[in-house]
User: Fold this.
Amino acid sequence: MKFYDVFIILLVIFMWASYYIAIKLGVAGSSPNLGVENFPPLLMGSFRFLFPAIILAPFFRLSKKHLKGVLLFSLAITIEAALSYVGMQHIEGGCATVIYQLVIPFSAILAMIFFKDKLSMEQWFGIIVSFVGILIIVGSPSVTNMLGVFMLIGATFSFSVSNIVVKKIPAPVSAFMLVGWGAVFCVPQLLLLSFLFEEGQVEALKNASTTTWITIFYLGIVSAIIAQLLWYYLIRKYPVTKVIPFMLLEPAIGLLLAYVALSESLSWQKVLGCAVVIVGMILVEFSARRRKRRST
Assistant:
């Protein structure tokens, strides 16, 4: 892999690892170094999807055969976003980044249920190891509110469901059509949830600081669009087996970013739990790839 491509993939991993850090800054104003005030989380989520809806959807046609799948996809993503943004008021950003890695074992289990994929003993062991890592992190003294933990686990599961929905959408389907039109449907769903369960939206918009808008811009443009564009560039250029291993850096980078940007503690439980989760991810992901190679 060329040096500049290594730089690009590290940049993508940084963008994704900083996703929950940015949400934490936006909805909870957690950093003593940045003046980000509290912002209604569901309202912030709706604005995050507004950017890809405006930028991507106009350039990709949504056909009738894809409509049902995109609607179901948007519903799963709306649930994921709602749980993530609200949950971030009750959990540390670094912990959330590590918990999000459960998308790999959740996706493996759902693929077994819906697509009859067989899981090896090594994969089952990896799934168990991943959850043990989460339990270690949850046992950290800094984790005092289990509500946030359960909401982030639910968000991760919902995102895994969205992956299953995508696989059931009739081919061919453009990833950017999916992201753009999915966002079109996510915006009104999140605005409705904000209207039903939140208050003070008008005041929040009037009093939003420049830093808050930068945070929303980062979530909607950098994490949602630029990172995806760069990721698909890498996937098209290199074998997946060369790109995927770099994703193992995401939880560790997330913990470090939370330590720097949010002044969160970096306890031995978090470091150990993160390492255990990474081991579980390796067992699940690479065992599956070895089985595919053998079958072909």
In short: The mean pLDDT is 86.
